[in-house]
Amino acid sequence: MAVRHAGDGRSRSEESFQQYASSMPWPAVSWADDATRQELASLLAVQGIPTLVLLDAKDCAVITDDARARVNDDPDGKDFPWRPEPVSLFTERLSSRLHDHPALILFVEGGPGEVEWAMSILRQAADVYEERHPASESALREPRLQFYVAQDVSMPRQGAREMIWNRIGDAADGLREQLVLEDTVPLLVAVDVWRGAVSVLEDEADDDELDEERDGGAGAISAASAVAFMEAFLAGDLPTAPIGVYLPPPPRPHQALLQDALPVEA
């Protein structure tokens, strides 16, 4: 695997750039080659630093533009090269992506089978989305619908495993509070931060009907209703409510490299 440091052109001097680059074991784009750095930032839709993007060596296709966070989550590289899954379990790491991409989110309880059922529903919706709305060559600049399962988890904070699941539950609870959603499950929502809007499809089935749906029955949120909800959301045909809350901001660029770009107060 080849690694290249590109910088962002905002270092105060060549000396500071070289000092920063010398702390890394891989080559860097030359300080003098500002055009290449700017072109890379534009092509890869870099919004801030540090950013780590993985490209396929065969065709330079983007594998993930979220590699920095994935390194933190998977320091041993067990899931490398971190190819994106069609549906993800919502965590704090993914909250910043809501600033860049709309999302379909299914809230469920943390009981046995709940997550598997929700994943199955959203995978079918994701497959339809990819078929009907294929990504263009400029996909990095194009908001793409994300699919998340937000799992409500409530268990004693004891061992490491329990702490991990509680963090997942905390992320779901925090998102529910930020979007001002009712405390009900299952709950399917569509969120578009750029439009400042959220749409909700509440499941009106009782617990018996929900069990029937998971056993092949009807009455609860289904793949068909999720797809219909998704398409209406994409077409702008759903009633929406303003988010009206403060979502976590995306990670700030490295402060030291922004000193020249920021105004200096007297």
UniProtKB/TrEMBL annotation:
Q: What is this protein called?
A: Nucleoredoxin
Q: Where is the Thioredoxin-like fold domain?
A: 12-60
Annotated Gene Ontology cellular components are: nucleus
Any one Gene Ontology molecular-function term assigned to this protein's record: thioredoxin-disulfide reductase (NADPH) activity
Any Gene Ontology biological process: negative regulation of Wnt signaling pathway
One Pfam family of this protein, by short name?
Answer: Thioredoxin_8
Q: Which Gene3D superfamilies match?
A: Glutaredoxin
